[in-house]
Structures are given as structure tokens and as C-alpha cells.
Amino acid sequence: MEKSTPEQLAQRQLDAYNGKKIDEFCEVYTENVVVMEFGTNKIMLEGKEAFKVRYNNLFEANPNLNARLVNRVVMGNHVIDHEHITGRADGNESEAVAIYEVNEYQIEKVWFIK
């Protein structure tokens, strides 16, 4: 595993997400990844296995899913991405804001702002 900047890690996971490449997507995250709701820190997902199952199901149910980067802010070991999500099977579009906390190799924590 090679060292990466926070921005490189965020971009790598976004590219894999848009390509529905589940293994490449999951490689960017640590084994103990935690996904939380911003503000409450309520845990939505914990551990790479649960993470992989969740996103694999999402990709299978929404084969046209796409996240377009609207804005990205990088500060230290945190990346904040604002994305416009399209391609859901139900036809709904949405906005998403994710905050990624990274180490030199992978994403450790994610917060979603709802």
C-alpha cells in the first residue's frame, strides 16, 4: 500500500464509487472504518465487511449511480466533499456532504451531513 494525500484518497474512492468497482472502493478504507452521522456521531456502519456489503448492495440496486463532485475542501487530514447524486433506481437526485478523516494510506472515518 502506498502513501497518498488526503485528496488522492478522496478522489480514488469517488472514482471507484462512480465505476461501481466495489473492491477498489473498499481498498481505500481501513478495516475498522466507521461511518457516522455528522453532528450526532451516530454510527451508521462499522468495519470494512459491513461497509462492503452496504455499498455492494447500493451499486447492484442502482447501476447508474453517479456522484458528481460539486466542491472539495482539504484541510490537514480531512477532506470535505459536496456531491450531487444521480442515477438512483427511484429517479431521485440528492445532495450529499461527506467528511473523510484519513491516515497516510486509507480513509478511517466518514461523517455524512444530512
Automatic annotation (TrEMBL):
Residues 11-106 form the SnoaL-like domain. Pfam families: SnoaL_2. Gene3D superfamilies: 3.10.450.50. It comes from the Bacteria. This is Nuclear transport factor 2 family protein.
